[in-house]
Amino acid sequence: MQLRPLPSKVADLLVQTKAPPRLRVHLCLVHDTACQLTANLRSAWPKLVIDEQAVHLGAAIHDIGKVIHPDELNEPGFEHEDAGRTLLLELGWSASLARFPVTHARKLDANDPIEDLLVAIADKVWKGKRDEALEQSLLAHIALLSGQAPWQVWLTLDEMLTNVAELSPERLRLQASHY
Known about the structure:
By secondary structure, the protein is mostly helical. It has a single domain, classed as Hypothetical protein af1432, CATH 1.10.3210. The radius of gyration is 16 Å and the shape is globular. It contains ten helices and no strands.
């Protein structure tokens, strides 16, 4: 599986924080998924305004707090979320990017920025998981910003997310090879 390279700023961060291989590959997988999603959205709705760079960076750093809480690489936990934001802020990252370690796991809705929704969706759909509430919130954003009827947006969005999720077995195998 050929993955898009992480932004150099993130690659440097992973070296600086001595991120373990499993975390590195996970961040690469979610980043690649986010890139695929934004490209698909741009193709379907070219006038939709999304800060793609923020989505790509957000996906690539969403779990960075796991360098501080490595047990959460293999077990559920939430300590990495605030730790990730704090780490990024201490390293000079902007608050607008340092929010992603927290927002990717928070209950989001249509009032949240579309970029946060996309990072959270990428963190689920890379492994084939679909989240109806997140997808409905994204649908509401797209319908509002594009002027398209919600049912029309849903037809396109559902097909798009289904296609992205179809690659999950290959992604899961790649991550599993880095235990």
